[in-house]
Amino acid sequence: MLDAKLKTQLRGHLQRMTQPVELRFAGAGDAASTEMSGLLAELAALHPGIRLRDDTDPAVRRPSFGIARSGEPARIRFAAVPLGHEFTSLVLALLQAGGVAPKADAALLEHARSLRGEWTFETYVSLSCQVCPEVVQALNLLALVNPGVRHTMIDGALFEAEVQAKNILAVPSVYRNGEVFTQGRVGLREVLARLDGGATARAAVGLAERPAYDLLVVGGGPAGAAAAIYAARKGIRTGLVADRLGGQVQDTLAIENLVSVPATEGPRLAADLERHVRSYGVDIIEGQRARALRPGALHAVELESGASLSARSVVLATGARWRELGVPGEREYRGRGVAYCPHCDGPLFRGKRVAVVGGGNSGVEAAIDLAGLAAHVTLLEFDGKLRADAVLQQRLAALPNVRVVLSAATTAVRGDGQRVTGLAYRDRGSGGGHELPLEGVFVQIGLSPATEWLRGTVALTGRGEIEVDARGQTSVPGVFAAGDATTVPYKQIVIAMGEGAKAALGAFDHLIRTPLPEAAPQATIAA
User: Fold this and answer.
1) 206 versus 175: which is more confidently predicted?
2) 449-481 tens-digit pLDDT
3) Considering 155, 243, 341, 484, which one is annotated as catalytic?
4) Which of 135, 155, 183, 338 could form a Cys-Cys staple with 80, CB 3.0–4.6 A?
5) Rounded Cα gap, residues 148 and 118, in angstroms
6) Is 345 a catalytic residue?
7) CA dihedral in degrees (12, 16, 22, 28; nearest 10)?
8) Would you call 341 a catalytic residue per the annotation?
9) 3-state secondary structure of 380
10) What is the DSSP letter of 328?
11) Sheet of 376-380, strand order
């Protein structure tokens, strides 16, 4: 199952283990059990400290396996054959259970250890989901460091009955003690904040102690990372505040057009960006969202937590998010049939009827992918023709279970209160209305800049993009912008990186020509 090269690499990693680990296998006598047992046997053969034994507990899912330190209960369990994106989750769990220190912020780990409670988490995933591993790894780590926590990762394709019973139509879906806890991407910081209601307030107090920056970057994607690196290299005090490092890149599957990097994946690139930024001593503030910009001699960036950070210059690199249809029913049924990531959620619609809204490259690619899983795919395009590349259109036309509807304006998503049951659209030519019965709607109509919080402060276009000049300068002196949130055309990773670097250089040029303010107040907390 594991090739020779991978085994050699794994053997080297596992040599770092300092304590024995048990793999406790609970089989069900089916094909998945055979595959799971074979994988575990190969892992156990790679290190004498890994012991494989049967799990006789009648209460555990089958097939599944637990990972436990010798003499302890298995607080981590995989109800899956964790290959693909989740193989890293398995390896990290083995290493960390075996005594290898996790690469996580020390304060976060201490916070995780200090929580008091008894929580059983279950995370439903699809093995093709590139977002799911971050959630799985965060909850596995929490279970390892806190004896009151148990976590099981569940492959929705392997346990279809559970998925259907719980009406799960989006992954990752996390349950705590049998109740819905969260859906979508969350990291350890977000999990701890949800479990500890006072965490946000304490974080805000800590931010109040930070003095003003020379340059503050808002956003942690490729543009924000490049801006922070270029600023820090100039020797100025640089901060970066972001909800999550990596930004939209985290949700990108394959990246094959980043110059000098023949092939990589979004999460890997995001991790590389973070390592590069941290290597320059940038003051990184994660898990925080900006809610307002107050320009002045010292610009203030107010955060949703109530804290306010100040800086002599600012680079706005807030990126973009999936554009919504903006029709009735879309938000109501998000995660209950309305989806935005075919790679993540597509496997949950196996054998069902679905629609893809959008005829560009992303929409046609989604339709092609879903055609291999769904019973039938209807692709709806607002324009009178598809806008995807010709080669993609040819592949689409060859699929027998795909129907293309042009000049179709989606007007509503239908549902029964629990899940999606259909979609309504209007024929833009005849004006006639149509109802399409189905179980899933995948929205693929591009991106929308994350700039709502800047309206009335910096000049924006009608589409919400930040207007910038050739140096990345916005309409506010000392405030620069870069990346997908701006008017710069061609939203590409390599372009965002270049624009981030340019904005930082523009900000530095502004700083050396601007007198220092008389006083540089510390960050504050809003009343």
Assistant:
1) 175
2) 999 999 999 999 999 999 999 999 999 999 999
3) 341
4) 155
5) 5
6) yes
7) -40
8) yes
9) strand
10) T
11) 338-339, 440-443, 353-357, 376-380, 402-405
